[in-house]
Amino acid sequence: MANLETTYLGLTLKNPLLAASSGLTSSVEKIKELADAGIGAIVLKSIFEEQINNEVSSMLEKDQQNMAYPEAEDYIKNYLRDNSVTRHLELVKTAKAAVDVPIIASVNCVSSSEWTSFAKDFEEAGADAIELNIFYLPTDRHEKPGLIEQLYLDVLDKVKQEVNIPVSVKFGLNHSNIIGMADKLKAHGAKGVVMFNRFYEPDINLETLELVSSEVFSTPADLRRSLRWVGMVASSVTQLDIAASTGIHDGTAVVKQLLAGAQVAQLCSTLYLNGTPVVGEILKELRTFMQNWNFKSIDDFRGRLSYKNIPDPFMYERSQFMKYFSNRK
After folding, report:
1. In sequence order, what are the residues at sequence separation of 6 or more whose Cβ sits closer than 8 angstroms to the Cβ of residue 218?
2. Can you tell me the distance from the alpha carbon of 241 to that of 42, in angstroms, rounded to the nearest whole number?
3. I want to staple 268 with a disulfide (CB 3.0 to 4.6 A). Which of 20, 111, 127, 197 is the partner?
4. Rg (CA), the chain
5. Where are the alpha helices (H) located in 109-261, listed in sequence order?
6. Are 260 and 15 in contact (CB under 8 A)?
7. What is the pTM (predicted TM-score) of this model?
C-alpha cells in the first residue's frame, strides 16, 4: 500500500490534500464531513479584515446621532471586531475537538494594522498554524511595486511577533518577481506559501449594462497558472513549503503539482462542484499513480519534475508558442 503521509508547515498529515479556506470550512458539521471523507488538513473560513471594517463603517453611518460621542464610536468598533473574532475563535476550538486532522486558521488581510494581534488568540484557541491571505489592489499609478510588496512583509512581521505556531502566506500571481517574493516571505519567517490566491474578478453584463462578478469557481485549465511557479519556487527557495492552489480538480492535478515540487495541494472549487466524495476519488487516483510507478511514498517523486530536476529547465521559462504555431497550417 502506498504511503500518502507527508508534512506541511512542520505538521504531520495523513495525505497531501487540504481543504482550502471557504464556506465549506465555516462550520463544525462541514469540517467533520471533510475529515470523514479523508482530507489531510483543513484551513478554516477566513476572518476578513475588510469585511469587519465595512461592518464598522456601515453601522457608524446608520447611527450618526451617537457618533457625536467618541466613546460610542470606539464601542461600536470594538464590539463588532471582538464579536467577529470570538465567532472564529469558537470555530477553532470546536473544530479541534471534533476532528483529528490539523486545523489552520485563516486571516484575510489588506493591512498591517493593530488587529493582527488577534492572531495570538487563534494560537491560544488551538490552531495548529495560521494562513495569511493577503491581497492589496493598487489603484494609484504612483505607487511603487516595492512599497506594495513591503505591505505583505509588514503583515507577516507583525503576525510573527505575536505567535509561535507556523505561518504561511497565500499570495497572488500579480507580483513583479514571484520567486523573489517567495524568498522574501521565507526570510521574514514564513514557513510556507500558498500559490496562488483566487480573487474576485469583475465582468460586464451586456443585458443590463452592469458590473457583475465573473465565474467564481476555477476550472482544471487554471492549473497552468500555478504549475510553472510551483516548479520554479520549489527549486529556487529551499526550506519553504508550497501549497499548490487553483485549478486542482482531480488526482491528476494533485500528482502534477507534487511532481513540480508542491508539499500539498489545496482543494476548493472541486469540493463545491463534486462534493466531499471527490476527496476519496483523488486519493484513489494518487495511490494508483504511485503503484503504477512503484513509488512507496510521496517523497519518492515529489519535485522529480521541478525546475532544477528536469534536463531542460527552459521548459519552465518558455513563454512563447513558436513551435505550436509554426506547425499549424
Report:
1. 198, 246, 247, 249, 268, 269
2. 16
3. 20
4. 21
5. 119-125, 145-162, 178-187, 224-236, 251-260
6. no
7. 0.88
